[in-house]
Amino acid sequence: MPSQDQIFELFDYCTWEWTQVNGMNGQMVTGPNGNTVFFPASGIRLEYDLDYVGEEGFYWSRTLNLPPVPSTGAAGIHLSWEFFELGGGSRCNGLTVRAVRAVDE
Hints:
Layout: H1 4-13, E1 15-21, E2 24-30, E3 36-40, E4 44-46, E5 49-51, E6 56-64, E7 73-80, E8 84-90
Antiparallel strand pairs: 1-2, 2-3, 4-5, 6-7, 7-8
């Protein structure tokens, strides 16, 4: 999973565009090198309910909240058609995981 610093890199250096891929709404993120990654608006699972599918996306990072915020939470990405921002929440909620891979150069 990306770190909070990697999320900030996406915010600082990439363009974000609300679009649809294979019938799913989400944000297409394009880097300065032209590479893209798609974050579907996959919703969030809160207890037994899956909410906001197709409207908002919630993604975990690997960065836990630092004190004084309880360590039961973690940082992440929150996105919709009108915004993308640092989000996160309690780790008992069901946010999407977006794997990243380091490529040896």
